[in-house]
Amino acid sequence: MNTGRKGILIVVSGFSGAGKGTIMKRLLERYPDRYALSVSATTRAPRQGEEHGREYFFVSTEEFESMIKREELIEYARYVNNYYGTPRSYVEEKLLEGRDVILEIEIQGALKVREKFPDTLLLFVTPPSAKELKARLVGRGTEDEATIASRLNRAVEESRGIENYDYFVVNDDLDTCVAQVHGIIEGEHYRVSRNTGRIEEMRQELHSFLKGE
Ligand code: ADP
Ligand code: 5GP
């Protein structure tokens, strides 16, 4: 019986400042062979410490628009005055290798991905409270006051779309949250609908066995 498992496409969304980047980093440190994190393209400027090709591919608006034209993106969206999009080739390659591929993207993109790939797993991450969300955004120290305000407004809009997701996870204690996210994904691999090939093999094997082959 074939024990190799198919990679799952996973979308993780959540308000800016919820801790998505921090959770992903810890998840990848803990399970480096298991997950592949897609690196998006964006027109926003790099934050201090961010590297081209690691956090994002930082591109000009012109470059981004030509990626759209060449159909190199699985999805893209505008978020607080910038474009963000998911390059197609990396995602397809890693899924074929059997890795679980994580897209850390906002809600419009998440819904587009699910339209194209209906078996995508959608996870939504929140902080324990609105007050803590603001404290994390301010504490990160990467945005000015006006951008923080836009991101908090966007959080209000995004909160209306949470019911489109499959799972809702609160990022209070980081390690607990990482364990929960990993547990959800692990459980997802055992869903009957994700194992139809193996189930059919089992049937065939039983059939052959009973016929004495
Ligand atoms: P996002 O990627 O969702 O915008 P980040 O991962 O950048 O959020 O996290 C925002 C800020 O909150 C960062 O300064 C990060 O260190 C902090 N943070 C993330 N998770 C936690 C947590 N569980 N408890 C306390 N602070 C956290
Ligand atoms: P940030 O500027 O904080 O890195 O990201 C802003 C928002 O854009 C976050 O909600 C993040 O998840 C989202 N985002 C990052 N990459 C992509 C992408 O490729 N596509 C879409 N639709 N959203 C993205």
User: What oligomeric state best describes the polypeptide chains here?
Assistant: single chain
Secondary structure class reads: alpha/beta
Task: Could you tell me the CATH topology label of the domain at 9-38 and 100-210.
Answer: Rossmann fold
- What is the radius of gyration computed over CA atoms, rounded to a whole number of angstroms? 19 Å
Helical content class: 40-55%
Distance between the termini: 15 Å
How would you characterize this protein structure?
There is one protein chain. By secondary structure, this protein is of the alpha/beta class. The protein has a domain at about 10-40 and about 100-210: Rossmann fold (3-Layer(aba) Sandwich). The chain has helices at about 20-30, 60-70, 90-95, 105-115, 130-140, 145-160, 175-190, 195-210; strands at about 10-15, 35, 40, 55-60, 75-80, 80-85, 100-105, 120-125, 165-170. Strands 2-7-1-8-9 form a five-stranded parallel sheet, sandwiched between helices. The mean pLDDT is about 95. Guanosine-5'-monophosphate binds near residues 86 and 108.
